[in-house]
Amino acid sequence: MHVVVAGAGAWGTALANVAARAGREVTLWARDGARAAEIAQSRENKRYLSGVRLADAIEVTADLAAAPPPALMLFATPAQALRDAAQAISGALPAGVPVVVCAKGIERRTGAWMTEILAQELPANPPAILSGPSFARDVAKGLPTAVTLAAAEEGAAAALADALGTPTFRLYHTDDVRGVEIGGAAKNVLAIASGIVAGRGLGASAHAALVARSFAELARFGRSCGARTETLTGLSGLGDLVLTCNAPQSRNFSLGHALGRGETVADARRAIGLAEGVHTAPVLVALAQARGVEMPIAASVDAILAGRIDIEPAIKSLLARPQRAES
User: Is the model more confident about 316 or about 187?
Assistant: First the structure.
């Protein structure tokens, strides 16, 4: 099986190593020819994943047309770049080849979920999504990781999981596509709030409460979209939320931490780089409001990022919410 990974960032590089460990022939596609050549020559993605060697079985190219036809395509681009990547690849991708999106977010311009974008741009290729608690460096180095792979037909999801699984990269499969997408997108927004609490020095008790109530928001929204409870409480929901809300390796947590220490949104974004939750927050909140779902923590993050409220008033507003039964 020949696997093509689109996106030569940290996550794409890590997934290329995973596919190679699974015994697949792998092509890592970078749109920048100079960067593709540098990675191919050094066998290391020095910009995004320094110190981790690229497996020998991986070919790196900027010319996808010259690569062998893939049997499986992984999209590891940022969420907001997925549509452009799919359009760029559409002419080189044979019909029927499964496409797996490995980005976590919602398209800000359209409100589309990741698999919806693939269905729109690559209608002849069945879409799937891979998500769960995973940092690129851990995965690239072969440290034990477990994630979820979802497709509309569970048999197809199981086959894709078998194609990519290794002893240290375990894939659980499901047909709850939307549930998996919701977990990956929402946790990035909620992790910013977690970082703010930590950066503000509000203590471990406040942090634990924030994570628990964040999960309540994620679950409420997920259920309103038809997501299953076992998905929301599984790897791609609760598992990913716990990881992202507790680790400085998370750019979303780190962004929130910088804001909690008093940095401006602009300065924090320049220092941290891409944090998917920044783009997802306004879309997630709008979707929740349209469904009548309360997400006060996510809404506060959106307001802070947009400059509509400062952190202290946002915290006071959350603490001043009426007493209620836990749900």
Answer: 187
| Helix, coil or strand: residue 150 | strand
The residue among 6, 23, 27 whose CA lies nearest residue 169 is 23
In 3-state terms the chain splits into helix, strand, coil percentages (rounded to 5) of: 55, 15, 35
pLDDT, tens digit, 9 for 90 and up, residues 53-108 = 999 999 999 998 888 889 999 999 999 999 999 999 988 899 999 999 999 999 99
Give the neighbor-by-neighbor strand order of the sheet with 169-174. Answer: 58-61, 25-29, 2-6, 72-75, 99-101, 127-131, 145-151, 169-174
Residue type, 213: R
Q: How many CB atoms lie within 10 A of CB 116?
A: 18
Identify the structural domains of the chain with CATH numbers, from first to last.
2-175 (3.40.50.720), 179-319 (1.10.1040.10)
Active site annotation includes 141: no
**Residue 15 confidence (pLDDT):** 98
Helix (H) or strand (E) holding 60: strand 58-61
Model-level pTM?
Answer: 0.95
